[in-house]
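tool_call: predict_structure(chain=1)
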Amino acid sequence: MKTASEIKKALRQEMLARRRALSADETSRMARKLAAEVLALPCYRAARRILAYLALPGEADLDEVLRAALREGKEVYVPVCLPERAMVAGRLLDMEHFVPGPYGLRDLPPGYETAEPEAMDLVLVPAVACDEAGHRLGHGAGYYDRYLPRVAEERRVAVLWDFQIVERVPSDEFDQRMGGFVTEKRAHFVR
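tool_result:
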């Protein structure tokens, strides 16, 4: 019988391979549908302060959501990775000025404003896989699992492509549960 760690590793490899197999046209089309789903969420519409990520290639892309939130006057933050797998929310002022960051991410230029996790009305969390109970599989570095304990569960929403929704994601005591998920096809909330 496989351990939870072995199941997570296999699931992560499978989902990342499926993501890499997507064409740029597919991800672009899916990203437009995903943006419409996110922008229609009541928790998005009510949020004044949002933390959302800058997608890696193939990842569920939120750039259109970030642009809309900035246009709407919301305070928008993105994760900034720090040493020792820590993360802070750095204020995003526009979608034009980035510097190269770790893991091939776009990063904020120096001098950004930060906000505490508790201040976020909505945190859109990248996921490699998620199940309907809110268990999320990330990339395995633990940045979000260290950040999210200070964010109320109902404010945490996993973002991923619909094929990444699985029957069950193994979880342990350190894995932070999501209040729900959103894909290019649907939104689901645990409560």
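agent: The chain has a mean pLDDT of 93. Proceeding to next step.
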